[in-house]
C-alpha cells in the first residue's frame, strides 16, 4: 500500500489550523507580558527574517516590549519592514534598536548597529530630534529619535564597541 503524503503547515497554510496557531502564539505573548507586569518590569522581544536570494530582498523585523515599574508597556519596533497604509513595504535601511536613558546631567543614547564601524556612523541633532545613519556594504541603518530633553551639540561624546554605539549628550541648562 502506498503512503499518503501529509500536507505540511507553512507560510501558505491559510486554513483554520494556521489561524489557531497564530492565535495561540498571540496568547503566549500576552501571557508573557502579563508576567512581566506582575514581576514589576522586564523586557520581551521577538524578531525574524524573510529573504529571497534570487531577488536580493531581505526583510528584517521585530519588536521589543519593556514593562517598567508603573506597569506601562513601551513597545519599540525595529527592522526594515514598514507599513505605508497600503501594506508592508521593505525599505533599504533597517531601523535599529535604540534606547535613551536620562542620567541626570546628560542623556545616554544606546543603539545596536552590528556590522558597521565607528567611521560608518553619522548623526545629526536638530532641535529635539536626533537622526542616526550608518552604512557599510549591504548593512544600512536609519532612525529618528525624539529626545526627552534639550541637549548641547558641542559636548556630544560618541563611542562604538562590538556593534553597540553610545552617544553621551549633555543636557542644555
In short:
With 173 residues, the chain is mainly β. It has one helix at 16-38; strands at 42-52, 57-67, 73-83, 88-95, 98-102, 106-112, 121-126, 129-136, 139-146, 157-161, 164-170. It has a four-stranded antiparallel beta sheet. A four-stranded antiparallel beta sheet has the order 5-6-11-10, with no helix packed on it.
Strand content: over 45%
Shape: globular
CA gyration radius, whole angstroms: 20 Å
Q: State the end-to-end distance.
A: 83 Å
Profile the largest sheet. Answer: 4 strands, antiparallel
Topology summary:
Blueprint: H1 16-38, E1 42-52, E2 57-67, E3 73-83, E4 88-95, E5 98-102, E6 106-112, E7 121-126, E8 129-136, E9 139-146, E10 157-161, E11 164-170
Antiparallel strand pairs: 1-2, 2-3, 3-4, 5-6, 6-11, 7-8, 8-9, 10-11
